[in-house]
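Lab manual, section 2.4: Encoding a predicted structure.

Procedure: take the sequence of the chain (326 residues), apply the prediction step described in section 2.3, and record the output as structure tokens. A sample record is shown.
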Amino acid sequence: MRSAATVTIGLGATIAVALAALAQAASGNGVAGAALSVHVPAQYRALIEDAGTYCPEVPPDLLAALIQHESSFNPGADSGPAKGIAQFRPGTFEERGIDGNGDGKRDLWDPEDAIPSAAKYLCEIYKELDDVPGDKQSNMLAAYNAGPGAVREHGGVPPYTDTQNYVRNIQATIRPGGGVGSSKTAAVVIGAASKMIGLPYSWGGGNASGPTNGFCCSPNGRSGAGIRGFDCSGLVVYAYAKTGVSLPRTAAQQYAASEHVSPRDLRPGDLVFYGTAAANIHHVGIYIGDGLMINAPRPGTDVRTDPIKALPDLYAIARPVPKKEI
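Recorded output:
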């Protein structure tokens, strides 16, 4: 059995590694090099860089972000209708895919075929949708997600929540500064929250300025009136305020002020919410990577790091909508 000291050191190391990786990504000095916004596994870096030369509208940076959002670079990803590292539908791949590695066959499960095929497909739909109103890059990404026909039918990005979030999340990754969801923002949020580890849980405690005394009473009758610290949502308010983003006070309100994120798009700095429905969300934590969150659990505990599965009713993952404080 590991000692408490060993566990504490391990959690500190996890946070340090997460912050170091985010700092590298934010500065452009990560494993994938300065040209890429996301970490690309070494075995796929050359594929991404080569495929990102098919057309100027699909540089390696954008292609890497798209593959990350599609499959997290998992060549065996299977969402049902879409398959492989680039999440092609078999019919689309049959029509648009190429033999990227020259082995005489086209295979959507083979990254050496699927990644260059994704780049080629993106280049093609960019040109095909040239006459559609709106931002051309947004239309291209929306077409990869929802199909070119849907983009043309709606005269731009379709009014589908999943597609709109898909476009927004990829563009937040590749654009300088990144906004909410970027490595830079995540580093600030996680850095701020991690400095509060060890402070006591206080029902109603915490605001944008830091820990405060709470008030009475929790559902179990515990008062935070004499305790200076944070409850779960107070910690989130504080951490995101460090980036200039103002969030409402309760976990349920914070979920309502955020955009749903697919589990495959989960990134450090995202918020994990607990409950059985949006109307009864009762808890929130700050994701830091490796299945862990910074968490103010309940009265009688301290701010700490926990697995996101520590609570049995994980309801949703969401990313705050940027609303800057005035």
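Check your result against the sample. The chain has a mean pLDDT of 86.
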